[in-house]
Design a protein that fits this description.
By secondary structure, the chain is of the alpha/beta class. The chain has two domains: 7-53 and 150-317, Rossmann fold; 55-144, Rossmann fold (3-Layer(aba) Sandwich). It has helices at 7-17, 30-36, 54-62, 67-72, 81-92, 107-115, 126-138, 150-166, 181-193, 209-216, 238-247, 256-269, 276-287, 307-317; strands at residues 26-28, 39-44, 74-77, 97-102, 119-123, 142-144, 172-176, 198-204, 250-254, 295-300. Strand 7 (172-176), helix 9 and strand 8 (198-204) form a beta-alpha-beta unit. The termini are far apart.
């Protein structure tokens, strides 16, 4: 299939969700610029409401539902940031959110989802959760896919418009890839505005959903092992693969240890707590710093990480 989210879709999404989400800051990091040898601009989406970019897409999706659809509630599959964001946006719009999570989901994320107003139902695994979501959808709830939905992708793309307005002349942008909806939206926005900009997708070694799908030529189901749980989508889709083929210049793989090392570096040097799924973009940029242009943008996408996990990872990896 051809990728079906355009710059116009993203601009309309930006108008739709205005006032519902935070305009997160960007700034030049002198410390990271020194490490890269180029000007490094951080986009602090880790400061977004609900702790990640996900509320952008969720608001864009739910604001397009009819009052009748909202009254019947929404259902989704997620063990991470999407779960929290769907719950928060549904509550804000007076709707019920049912979140289907694998039993292995983090207790931290389960607690945040419930605190945001969502109902949590645990399933044996992600495959069982997706099957249940379809069943609930057949009963009348709106099934909201975490990343294979044009409205979700367009909403996420508003970050790209925002970043481009805050940091003119970017030559390279690093964005993490889970199922591929976030990177698709950001890339569609930023390449739509500046076709020459290079978009670098980033995956961790234990969560190579998109890398494996592109190599196989079709979606591949994986069992993620990375500590970057929010990158652990069980599969890419034809839509997100189409975006990756046409809009992502390359995909850089980062070891978990390096993601944790940059998480610690960011906390100590930038005074910002981010997830491994965000910190990995810094590790990726350092891998290819010799071939970057003069203005490098790095999207720090989320901050929902328990401090006890950070402490455990530091011990495990010796960082």
């Amino acid at each position: 299939m051809n990728f079906d989210v355009t710059l116009d879709h993203i601009r309309r999404a930006q108008e739709r969700i205005a006032g519902r989400v935070r305009v997160t800051p960007s700034y030049v990091s002198e410390a990271l610029s020194s490490r890269l040898g180029q000007t490094a601009i951080l986009k602090l989406e880790a400061l977004q409401d609900a702790g990640s970019f996900k509320v952008r897409g969720c608001f864009n999706k739910l604001l397009q539902l009819t009052p009748n659809e909202l009254s019947r509630g929404v259902v989704t599959v997620s063990g991470g940031n999407h779960a929290i964001a769907v719950s928060k946006t549904a509550a804000a719009l007076g709707s019920r959110a049912l979140v289907l999570m694998p039993k292995a989901a983090s207790p931290f994320n389960i607690a945040l989802t419930r605190a945001a107003g969502g109902e949590v139902e645990l399933c044996d695994d992600a495959i069982a959760a997706f099957a249940k979501a379809e069943a609930y959808g057949e009963k009348g709830m709106t099934n909201i896919h975490a990343y294979d939905d044009p409205a979700i992708i367009a909403g996420h793309g508003t970050l790209g418009l925002e970043f481009a307005a805050q940091a003119e002349g970017l030559t390279d942008v690093f964005v993490s890839i889970g199922g591929g909806g976030f990177s698709a939206g950001v890339a569609a926005a930023m390449k739509g505005l500046s076709p020459s900009i290079r978009i670098h997708g980033v995956e961790t070694v234990g969560a190579t959903t998109m890398t494996q799908a592109l190599a196989a030529g079709s979606p591949v189901s994986i069992r993620p092992t990375s500590i970057a749980r929010t990158l652990g989508a069980p599969f890419a889709t034809e839509r997100t693969m189409a975006a990756a083929r046409t809009l992502i210049d390359d995909i850089i793989l980062v070891e978990d240890r390096d993601a944790v090392a940059e998480l610690v570096w960011t906390l100590q040097n930038e005074r910002i707590l981010v997830e491994p799924a965000a910190a990995c973009v810094i590790a990726a940029a350092l891998q290819i710093k010799d071939r970057l242009g003069p203005r490098v943008g790095l999207v720090l996408c989320g901050s929902n990480v328990p401090l006890e996990d950070v402490a455990a990872w530091r011990t495990t990896f010796g960082v």
